[in-house]
Amino acid sequence: MTGGHGDDIYRYDDLVKMNFSTTVYQHVDHSALKAHLMDHFDVVTHYPESQPRQLERIIARQLGISPESVMVTNGATEAVYIIAQLFRHSCSIIPQPTYSEYADACRLHKHIITYEADLDAAALPKDRIYWVCNPNNPSGNVLKKGFVDYVVRRSPRYTFVIDQSYGTFTKEHLLQPRDLQGLTNVILLHSLSRTYSVPGLRLGFITAHPSVILLLRSLRHPWPVPALSIEAGKFLVQHGQPAVADIDGYLDEAQRLRTQLRQIEGMRVFETKTNYMLCELNGFTAATLKSKLVHQHGMLIRDCYNFYGLSKAAFRVSAQLSEENDALVAAIRQLAEEQEP
Hints:
Helix content is about 35%, strand content about 15%. By secondary structure, it is of the alpha/beta class.
């Protein structure tokens, strides 16, 4: 990973009391998962499956697709790197700003990379890959399901990697794996880590045509997912609740947070269709604002300096509890007022 990422709470010892830097909701009751893992802790004394096929079958059954169309990965990030490796030396189009791992993985595997989606088609190789984060990180915008489906179906020569890792936290309709059966030019990425708010377990999966999954499997090393993570995944998919049961209420709270932030003098907050939002505050770099919030208020935000095309002032926050959101607004307002001449 180039530069860094959100949720770098490990840098700050015990300073952080409220974490707005991650796209994951921080207030989930994991007591049932903890109890299950304690009851099955002996899995760590054995090797896991060399490939997590049991979990793949469970996911496939939930999605109503063939197990041959599912590949569980060590987080969605492993999926990004395997896909980039499969298409080594290809041409990749990565509209910006977006998740930086797409470009990092493509550079590693010697892709020709362009950050523009509307270049003259004649200037690019005929075979190319489009990387689409939907909902997009860090902006929070969402492409409509009908539009994405139309583009994918009318462009069979192009490969579309559509990362729906943040799909749990939007009410917008997204592509479903069963909608795309028979298509070989689209690969969907999913994140159990974000759906169930367990990023430390590193659980993601790919859905694609079985012929594509077979090629991706050929690039993997054995035992990519630890036994305890597999056990957690099996429990969560079969018995767990998504991190946010009331998604309508949560997204209403996110919009309330956006409204409150926009009322701060000098604050710009971009529109969003999910639980996180991109912001800028006049007079502050994101790095300075982040440092002040951590050390003076015990709050962590996401400095977006390593997203291509954004200013040094850009930062991202995600909605948490309403009282925490109010505290964040008050802290930023105080810092903004102190900065005024």
